Amino acid sequence: MIGRLNHVAIAVSDLKAGVATYAGVLGAKVSDPQDEPDHGVRVVFVELPNTKIELLEPLGENSPIAKFLEKNPAGGIHHVCYEVDDIIAARDKLKAEGARVLGDGEPKIGAHGKPVVFLHPKDFCGTLTELEQV
Amino acid sequence: MIGRLNHVAIAVSDLKAGVATYAGVLGAKVSDPQDEPDHGVRVVFVELPNTKIELLEPLGENSPIAKFLEKNPAGGIHHVCYEVDDIIAARDKLKAEGARVLGDGEPKIGAHGKPVVFLHPKDFCGTLTELEQV
């Protein structure tokens, strides 16, 4: 069912410092920052030859990554995102297997403008897991 | 400097359950388990079209992932691994930038039989980061 690894998301409290690490120290190609107010994050994309790393900084009140950064002030890997062809079919299969889909279970439009669901970490190897329809 | 994302490593306390999640629930192609006694892990490879996920279970005494699993009993993302062309040049550049290389700073032969170094999470967005020469 799952296809490509779309991205690994790393939450940071200081996006400029994260960019300095990835662009400066690690020598990767990093995009300009983008505000995603609907998702409560400011993001840059680290463009690797086969996938991307997204560095996320909290934006605004109630950012979904604020609590994670309280627990992990140095930052850390927040989630992984796998691509699927059909988000509804994927969601229905997962629910039939007893896996928990977060929120109301309905796909939302994610930060890339495509339908996504997030899956409960406890059901996926302790890893917050996003599925994105591509 | 960094190239492809070679893998994302997810530590689990029960590899069979991890395989059931990735092969069964998520429908991915998963290899047979391999014991890596020199690295203190038993591993399966989740083969995605563009990269791989490695599920790691502790093997033997003093597994390097035992402490992580004590803190994260449900499992979790343990590290990411980026490819580099020249591990010595990469290590020297990172040290010149003030980044900390774990251990004695000398590349070791990693689980894929290739030279690797691990970088201090505090210097890399709170993320344990492996570089592998390919």
Automatic annotation (TrEMBL), chains A, B:
Pfam families the UniProt entry points to: Glyoxalase_4
EC number(s) on file: 5.1.99.1
Superkingdom of origin organism: Bacteria
Cited Gene3D superfamilies: 2,3-Dihydroxybiphenyl 1,2-Dioxygenase, domain 1
Annotated ranges, domain VOC: 4-134
InterPro entries: Glyas_Bleomycin-R_OHBP_Dase (IPR029068), MeMalonyl-CoA_epimerase (IPR017515), MMCE/EMCE_epimerase (IPR051785), VOC_core (IPR037523)
Top-level class of the enzyme under EC nomenclature: isomerase
Protein name per Swiss-Prot or TrEMBL: methylmalonyl-CoA epimerase
